[in-house]
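HOLO CASE FILE
Compound: coenzyme A
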Amino acid sequence: MIKIRQENIDDYEEVYNVIKTAFETAEHSDGNEHNLVVALRKSDNFIPKLSLVAVKDNKIVGYILFTKIKIGEYEEIALAPLGVLPEYQNQGIGSELIKEGHKLAKDLGYHYSVVLGDDKYYTKFGYIPAIKYGIKAPFEVPDENFMAIKLNNTDTEVRGIVKYAKEFGI
Ligand SMILES: CC(C)(COP(=O)(O)OP(=O)(O)OC[C@H]1O[C@@H](n2cnc3c(N)ncnc32)[C@H](O)[C@@H]1OP(=O)(O)O)[C@@H](O)C(=O)NCCC(=O)NCCS
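Model generated. Tokens follow.
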């Protein structure tokens, strides 16, 4: 049984190790994702309700974070990072973290989530190239790797260039 819940202060050290370990074997990594989480928690862009851990066998085995971004004038969210301990991968834990995060984000009123990553993975959850919504990355990236998902059926026209939290260093 996997339990997904909001991260709390007592989880910080375990989350640090989960993210560090998950990204050690990742295809794309700058080797700094665990430190990015530490920095983002202190940022105004941090959303405690969208900092989620997956618990299995009484330990934290996965983590996901969505932080505030600007798309044009709108406040929306970006998914980063997501990590699952190698020995717990391919058991659906990443999927559960993403789906629960989207559900909570929708309830909080966000319209869109963006992600930079593997299109083969994120398209499973409804992400499409962000450019199809008129949402643009603030850096050069192949269209298929910069994705967005519409979280609700609003007609709100959210368009423009994404501005990340300064902690991303973008
Ligand atoms: C990416 C990651 C979070 C996925 O977590 P997970 O718990 O293994 O994912 P799930 O078990 O929910 O996988 C769901 C599906 O995606 C597939 N999948 C997993 N990783 C994938 C990848 N890198 N590329 C394409 N497909 C992938 C699985 O095979 C599975 O397919 P299925 O539903 O058809 O069976 C995990 O592999 C990880 O921590 N990787 C290292 C860190 C990383 O790269 N994070 C993402 C940054 S963009």
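CASE NOTES: Residues 22-23, 26, 82-84, 89-95, 117-118, 120-121, 124 surround coenzyme A (CB under 6 Å). The chain has one domain: 3-168.
CLOSED: yes
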